[in-house]
Amino acid sequence: MEREIQVVAGDFRRLGFEIITSPTSREQVKTVRRKFEDRVLAKFADNPVRNRNLIKLLAEDIEVKRFFCAPDLIDALKDRLRMVDPIQTGPIVTHYTSSNTTGNNYGLPYHQDWPSMGTSSNGVIAWTSITDVGKQGPGLRIVPGSQSLGLWPGDQTESGYVLHQQEIEGFLDLEIEAGDILLMSPFLVHKTRTSSAPDWKLSLSCRFDDLECSEWDKRNFVSAYKTTVDRQVYLSGQS
Ligand SMILES: O=C(O)CCC(=O)C(=O)O
Hints:
CATH superfamily: q2cbj1_9rhob like domain
CATH architecture: Sandwich
Low-confidence stretches: none
Shape: globular
Bound molecules: 2-oxoglutaric acid
């Protein structure tokens, strides 16, 4: 059967990233965006905490889960990136970037994902956005080829492994159509590009690891991700 996946930009082995697309992935994300606008945005109130809680719930949406389980995506991980048995590690993560009070102009500085994963040595991050991302407005900035230097000097912080160097030449502001998928090496240096423009961006990402990675096997399949339950949240009456 002919594969629908096409490579739009990048070269995973050489540059540490590749952008792939398929008509199915764009259609799926249109559905997700409609849901976000009709069901999630409609519930927004003048309360950034409530709004952020709602945004986080989009990651649990069945259509979002389907997106990251799509056969085309899994085939691309196997055929293009030579993962033998891709499994999802960690939750689907949302990043909402906007200059309003909910987004609060928050964005991740230059960081690498590897220290926050610590899993198989051929792991991959699959990232998409429900809005088109361009060179203006909120977006994603990457440093192509930065993965080849391994781990850059940095500090592990609450929001990730943040690099000491925050001014880096040779960056690329990605242009990605909603639903296209960026496949990133966990060592690729990247950051959120914030903007004071009124536009917003909502990205979704999912980590994949390879159950057949022998190096991970030797490390007994450790993972930085844990399942935790906040047993106080209801009893403490938080709202
Ligand atoms: O989407 C974004 O703004 C940042 C995403 C990111 O840095 C990550 O998932 O590691």
